[in-house]
Design brief:
Structural class: alpha+beta
Order of helices and strands: EHEEEEHEEEEHHHEEEEE
CATH superfamily of the largest domain: Bira Bifunctional Protein, Domain 2
Oligomer: single chain
Strand order of the largest sheet: 1-2-5-9-8-7-6
Number of domains: 2
Largest sheet: 7 strands, mixed
Strand content: 25-35%
CATH topology of the largest domain: BirA Bifunctional Protein, domain 2
Shape: globular
CATH architecture of the largest domain: 2-Layer Sandwich
Length: 251
């Protein structure tokens, strides 16, 4: 990490914690926390995922951390640009090690349909703008046993070798900082384009289930809006907008 980098310059490293997001949120509520502060846990016992799911991680094997970022330059209606930026950063990192990395809407990272990383962002809001955001990231690095999560994989499992956790972590923080500064500068087209170009199902047909009706549809993602809603053109030429809890991709 270079001396001028601010993401990770304030790093709290913990042997074990329930949730790095919870820890950082509590800390931010109790005291001033610098922009770019990072909580890294070598063992996360109660990690949180999307849709209320847990995030299981073998102790000492993976990257489980949270970053606090000031995001007051984004309106609530633009909140998903932050998610895109983080997805892009993790995708960019993993693509340095392995091919066929894809983003699955809204913010999972897959390799050959196996989940290799997940992201959970929790925002605080002031006057219709984001205020600060706590970004939880889990990357499956050196774990090899996924008997309790058969749809998951790790870099070590796919590459058949262990990786240097500190080296990967440092690379990822550097990428996140560069992309965060682009987001802050308003380079939204670049962020949006990268996300769509690596999004599973963008302009290609996939099978989905509409949660409320249980209806199964085939369709192509044509757009992801800045508020996170996804637009899908179904095979019968219906164009529909969905939010995260309304639709899921069928494997």
């Amino acid at each position: 990490m270079n001396n001028e980098q601010f993401i990770g310059s304030n790093l709290i490293e913990l042997d074990s914690i329930g949730s790095t997001n919870n820890y950082l949120s509590k800390l931010a509520n109790e005291t001033f926390v610098e922009n770019g502060s990072v909580i890294l846990a070598h063992n996360q016992t109660n990690g949180k995922g999307q849709r209320g799911n847990g995030w299981e991680s073998e102790s000492g094997k993976n990257l489980t951390f949270s970053v606090l970022l000031q995001t007051e330059f984004l309106k609530i209606s633009q909140n998903f640009l932050l998610s895109m930026m983080v997805c892009n950063s993790v995708h960019e990192l993993l693509s340095q090690y392995i091919d066929k990395v894809e983003i699955k809407w809204p913010n999972d990272i897959l390799v050959d349909d196996k989940k290799i990383a997940g992201i959970l962002i929790e925002n605080s809001i002031v006057n219709q703008h984001l205020h600060q955001s706590i970004i939880g990231i889990g990357v499956n690095l050196n774990q090899r046993d996924f008997s309790t999560a058969p749809q998951a994989a790790s870099l070590a499992l796919l590459l058949k070798k262990e990786l240097n956790k500190k080296e990967v972590f440092t690379k990822l923080l550097t990428i996140i900082e560069r992309n965060y500064l682009e987001l802050k500068q308003g380079l939204w087209f670049r962020i949006n384009s990268y996300y769509l170009n690596h999004l599973l199902g963008y302009k290609t047909e996939q099978n989905y289930q509409i949660i409320k009706t249980k209806e199964q549809v085939t369709g192509r993602i044509t757009e992801v809006e800045h508020n996170g809603f996804v637009r899908i053109m179904t095979s019968d030429r219906r164009s529909q907008l969905f939010e995260m809890k309304e639709i899921k991709r069928l494997v």
